[in-house]
Amino acid sequence: MPKNISLETVVDSCISGFEEANKNYKEWTGGWSARTAPEFLSQVEIAKVLAKISPAVSLEDKTKDIISIAKGETRGRSPRNNLGRMDITVWHASSEPRFAIEIKKANTPSKIGNDIRRLGQLVDKCPKLQAGIMIVISGASKKATLDARFKKMETGLRLDLRKKSEYILAINKRGASIYVG
Q: What DSSP letter does each residue of 16-62 carry, written as one string?
């Protein structure tokens, strides 16, 4: 296992996992996109790819537990703030959180605003956390619509869009063609 895992490597792994989830779901459903699948499918496939490059990967950790571990608080009361759960946590070999990842199916910035805030709070409270990563899954009948949608999310929430997957052509549950990214 590499001692230092770059943000770019983690993002590339997340994209690979999403592409695998989409491939599997298309196969199982006769062509439907991962946009119509539960987020958990993408979560598991991304975690499987991340587990190949990290000493430990976990799913659905309570955010307050991640903060407690990061601060070395192994006994006593948990922090009072209830920030929900992180979809995926990538850990250092030293059992400290390294990356926190949220996955969300969304078409508008308002659908991911709370997740972005939770990631930001977690990064603020965990000094050794390298980054919070938001994976947004969206679908549209035209690539240009997806481009505009992601640009609006990036601008509206002041995000740093590091990378996006190639758009994947699939079908929705009604049989219409859809691009997913």
A: HHHHHHHHHHHHHHTSB-GGGS-HHHHHHHHHHHHTTTSSEEEEEEE
Predicted local confidence at residue 7, as pLDDT: 86
Residue with tokens 């996006």: 164
- Please give the pLDDT value at position 47: 96
As a whole number of angstroms, the distance between CA 144 and CA 164 comes to 14
Count CB atoms within 10 A of the CB of residue 42.
27
For residues 53, 58, 59, 60, the Cα torsion angle rounded to the nearest 10 degrees is: -140
Contact 136, 104 (CB under 8 A): yes
What is d(CA 172, CA 36) in angstroms, rounded to the nearest whole number? 7
Of 4-8, 12-16, 47-51, give the lowest mean pLDDT range.
4-8
Provide the whole-model pTM.
0.82
**Helical (H) or strand (E) element with 15:** helix 7-29
What size, in residues, is the chain?
A: 181
pLDDT band for position 66 (cuts 50, 70, 90): confident
Structure tokens at 117: 């805030």
Beta strands at 56-62 and 85-91: parallel, antiparallel or unpaired: antiparallel
